[in-house]
C-alpha cells in the first residue's frame, strides 16, 4: 500500500514521455495499446496537441489480438500509415498489456524497417515508469541513430561557442516561451544554442548536434543522450538549468568543460549550503536543483530538493533526497516550513507551512497553463 496514491496524482508515464520527446521531429510514434494511453496523453500531457501537428498514433490493440499474439496486424497498420505519411522515422512504445504478453518490439521494429526502408526503433516502455525514463531513452535513440559525424558536414563558424540543450520538453518546461528564456540567458554570455532536444527544432537541426562544443543537460531527460554524444563524439556535458540566477555559473562550467574536454559535475550541486534547509523544493532534480542553488545564491537561504522520480539518485545533492510514493513524501514534508512545488502537492503539506506554487506539467498536466 505504500505505493498507492489517494490524494496526489502520479507523474506522467514513460509512454507519454516518448511522445513528448519526439513530438516535433517529424517521425511517427505508435503507442501499442487499446486506447487509454493516447487519450491520457492528448488531454493531459501535451501542451502542443491543438496547435502543432504530429504523427502520434494508437494501435487499437484488441483483446483477441493480444491473446493470440497477432503482431502482423500491428505491423501491417504501421506500414500502411507510413506509406501514406512518409515519416522520417518510426518509434514504437509499449504499454502494460503488450508488456505482460511479452511482445518483441525490437523484432517488430526490425521487420518494419526492413520492409519500409524507414528507420524504426522501439523504446522499452510499459506504463510503469515515469516520463524521465521514456523520454530519456527516446532522445538516446535519436542520438544513436541520427546525429551525423561532424567531419562529414559543413563546419560551423569556428569563432562562435556552440551548445546543445538536452532534455527540453513541455513536461518540464511548459510552453516554448520558457525555452526561449533559457536560450536568451545563454546568449547573453556569448553562447550560441545550436539545437534544443527537443522543442523548437526539427530532426535536421538535431542531426548537426555533433558540431557543438559542449552539451548542457537542462533536465534529467537529457542525460542519456549526453552520455551517448560524449561516448561517440567526445562532446563534454554540463548539468544544470540556466535560470536567471545560475546562468553565470553554468556558463563558467561550459567554458571549463570545453577547455578541459571533460564532463563537469552538476553545477547546481556545487557550493550549496550545508546548514539545515529552510526551503523545500519538490520536483525534477535538475530544474529544481538549479532553482534551489539560485535561491541560495541570491537570497542566502538554505534549500533542499525532494525528487519524486526514479533513476535520479546521481543528480541530487547531500541534503536532497529521492522520495517515491505519496506516504513517503508526506512524511518528509511534515516538518517543512517553506515549500515550493506544484499546486497539487498542497493537500499533503503541513497546514502551517508557507506554500509557493510552481506548476509542473508532468505532474498536474494542463490545469495551470
Annotate the secondary structure layout.
Elements: H1 14-22, E1 28-32, H2 36-45, E2 55-58, H3 63-68, H4 71-85, E3 90-94, H5 96-101, H6 105-116, E4 120-123, H7 131-145, E5 161-166, H8 170-173, H9 176-187, E6 191-197, H10 203-207, E7 214-217, H11 223-233, E8 237-239, H12 247-260, E9 279-282, H13 285-299, E10 303-307, E11 321-322, H14 326-333, E12 338-341, E13 354-357, H15 361-364
Parallel strand pairs: 1-2, 1-3, 3-4, 5-6, 5-7, 7-8, 9-10, 9-12, 10-11, 12-13
Helix pairs in contact: 1-2, 1-7, 4-6, 7-11
Protein name: Nitrogenase component 1
Pfam family, one: Oxidored_nitro
InterPro entries: Nase/OxRdtase_comp1, Ni-siroh_cyclase_CfbD
Task: Tell me about this structure.
By secondary structure, this protein is of the alpha/beta class. It has three domains: 14-129, Rossmann fold; 150-264, Nitrogenase molybdenum iron protein domain (Rossmann fold); 271-364, Nitrogenase molybdenum iron protein domain (Rossmann fold). The chain is 40% helix and 15% strand. It is built from 15 helices and 13 strands. It has helices at residues 14-22, 36-45, 63-68, 71-85, 96-101, 105-116, 131-145, 170-173, 176-187, 203-207, 223-233, 247-260, 285-299, 326-333, 361-364; strands at residues 28-32, 55-58, 90-94, 120-123, 161-166, 191-197, 214-217, 237-239, 279-282, 303-307, 321-322, 338-341, 354-357. The chain has a five-stranded parallel beta sheet, with helices on both faces. Strands 2-1-3-4 form a four-stranded parallel beta sheet, sandwiched between helices. Strand 7, helix 11 (223-233) and strand 8 (237-239) form a beta-alpha-beta unit. Helix 1 crosses helix 7 (131-145), helix 4 packs parallel to helix 6 and helix 7 packs parallel to helix 11. The longest helix is centred in the N-terminal third of the chain and has 15 residues, at 71-85. It is globular. The mean pLDDT is 91. Residues 28-240 form the Nitrogenase/oxidoreductase component domain. It comes from Anaerostipes amylophilus. Pfam families: Oxidored_nitro (PF00148). This is Nitrogenase component 1.
Amino acid at each position: 500500500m505504500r505505493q498507492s496514491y489517494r490524494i496526489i496524482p502520479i507523474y506522467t508515464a514513460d509512454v507519454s514521455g516518448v511522445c513528448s520527446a519526439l513530438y516535433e521531429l517529424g517521425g511517427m510514434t505508435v503507442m501499442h495499446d487499446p486506447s487509454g494511453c493516447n487519450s491520457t496523453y492528448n488531454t493531459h500531457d501535451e501542451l502542443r496537441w491543438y496547435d502543432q501537428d504530429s504523427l502520434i498514433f494508437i494501435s487499437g490493440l484488441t483483446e483477441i489480438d493480444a491473446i493470440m499474439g497477432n503482431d502482423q496486424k500491428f505491423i501491417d497498420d504501421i506500414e500502411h500509415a507510413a506509406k501514406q505519411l512518409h515519416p522520417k522515422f518510426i518509434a514504437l512504445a509499449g504499454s502494460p498489456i503488450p508488456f505482460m504478453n511479452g511482445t518483441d518490439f525490437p523484432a517488430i521494429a526490425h521487420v518494419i524497417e526492413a520492409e519500409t526502408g524507414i528507420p524504426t526503433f522501439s523504446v522499452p516502455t510499459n506504463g510503469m515508469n515515469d516520463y524521465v525514463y521514456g523520454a530519456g531513452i527516446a532522445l538516446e535513440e535519436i542520438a544513436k541513430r541520427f546525429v551525423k559525424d561532424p567531419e562529414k558536414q559543413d563546419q560551423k563558424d569556428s569563432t562562435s561557442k556552440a551548445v546543445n540543450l538536452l532534455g527540453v520538453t513541455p513536461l518540464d518546461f511548459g510552453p516554448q516561451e520558457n525555452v526561449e528564456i533559457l536560450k536568451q540567458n545563454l546568449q547573453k554570455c556569448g553562447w550560441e544554442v545550436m539545437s534544443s532536444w527537443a522543442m523548437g527544432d526539427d530532426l535536421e537541426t538535431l542531426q548537426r548536434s555533433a558540431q557543438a562544443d559542449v552539451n548542457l543537460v537542462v533536465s534529467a531527460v537529457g542525460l542519456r543522450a549526453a552520455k551517448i554524444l560524449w561516448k561517440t563524439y567526445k562532446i563534454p556535458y554540463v548539468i544544470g538549468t540556466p535560470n536567471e540566477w545560475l546562468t553565470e555559473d553554468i556558463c563558467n562550467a561550459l567554458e571549463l568543460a570545453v577547455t578541459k574536454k571533460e564532463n563537469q559535475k552538476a553545477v547546481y550541486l556545487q557550493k550549496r549550503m550545508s546548514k539545515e534547509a529552510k526551503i523545500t523544493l519538490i520536483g525534477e532534480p535538475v530544474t529544481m536543483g538549479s532553482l534551489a542553488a539560485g535561491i541560495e545564491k541570491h537570497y542566502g537561504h538554505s534549500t533542499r530538493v525532494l525528487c519524486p522520480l526514479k533513476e535520479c539518485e546521481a543528480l541530487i545533492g547531500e541534503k536532497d533526497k529521492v522520495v517515491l510514493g505519496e506516504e513517503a513524501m508526506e512524511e518528509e514534508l511534515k516538518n517543512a516550513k517553506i515549500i515550493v512545488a506544484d499546486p497539487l502537492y498542497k493537500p499533503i503539506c503541513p497546514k502551517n507551512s508557507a506554500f509557493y506554487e510552481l506548476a509542473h506539467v508532468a505532474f498536474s498536466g494542463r490545469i495551470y497553463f
